[in-house]
Amino acid sequence: MTTNTVNYVEPTTEELAEGLRLRRKKRVVNFAIDVFLIVVSILMLLPLVFLVANAFKTPAEMLSWPPTIIPRDPTIANFSAVLGETPLLRWIGNSIAFAVMSTIAIVATSAIAGYVFGKFRFRTLNILFALFLATAIVPFEVYMIPLYFQAKSLGILNSVWGLLLGYLVMSFGIFLIRQNVIHTIPDELLEAARIDGAGEFWIFLHIVLPLLRGALGALAVLAFFQAWTAFAWPMIVTTTRTSYTIEVGLALFQTGFTVDLGRLSAASATVLIPSILLFVVLRRNFVQGVASTGLKE
């Protein structure tokens, strides 16, 4: 019987000094990276801070130099003027209805198509998936006018249904869900459910969808903000003042020669509330869903 022994060699003074120097260098580099990221974050948040601050400023203070972050004489006159003279709440309601319905449609179509493309092996499905991806490189402006005539023929202009016509499917959403289906749902789990007598619809509802909760949450955030910030399509489809979305309504504060900064800032600050609330509620699912897209089996 043989015994392997390992002789411990005590590090020399030079090796200890070198290790200490490397640790100090690593701490300095990490500290520099943290400082850089903090500075960049502050610079990115600064326009948002000024936007909210300008909403509470008087016109004179808004044009003063140097600009002030905290208003010297806060006022809610801008909010009162916006809410009293424009249908801002109606615009926000239109945008919320449009964004929510678009999110539901995109999540539903992406979940179904992503599952089919990810787990069913047919050559025609690969061709269809390639066509869906190809549509992602086609600008929306290319087929926006034909889509407008289709909405006009259906009689859904100046309505949420007309807005929804251009935002029912997202090619990136199908790709995102397909990748998550491939890398996070094992085929053995689905085969076991089929052997037990489960139908495809039951498998999709009770197995696939719960496992895609993170990815669907991320897709919901992306779909909501895509519809919430849409401008070109709502500007074409909506022609009456009461049917505008918030993006089209905010453009009314800018004329050919002047911009009402106070009211525009107040309206923009009010519009931020739904967006921030949605991101706060779904931020964990958003990060989890995006991160899991790159997982490997």
Automatic annotation (TrEMBL):
Location (main, coarse): membrane
Matches recorded under PANTHER family: ABC TRANSPORTER PERMEASE PROTEIN MG189-RELATED, ABC TRANSPORTER PERMEASE PROTEIN MG189-RELATED-RELATED
By what name is this protein known? Answer: Sugar ABC transporter, permease protein
Q: Where are the transmembrane segments?
A: 31-56, 96-118, 125-149, 155-177, 201-225, 264-282
Localization of this protein: Cell membrane
Q: What species is given as this protein's source?
A: Neorhizobium galegae bv. officinalis bv. officinalis str. HAMBI 1141
Against InterPro entries, the record matches this protein to: MetI-like, MetI-like_sf
| Residue ranges of domain ABC transmembrane type-1 in the record | 92-282
Question: Which Gene Ontology biological process is one annotated for this entry?
Answer: transmembrane transport
User: What's a single GO CC term here?
Assistant: plasma membrane
> What are the entry keywords?
Cell membrane, Membrane, Transmembrane, Transmembrane helix, Transport
Membrane association type = Multi-pass membrane protein
Give the record's family classification. Answer: Belongs to the binding-protein-dependent transport system permease family.
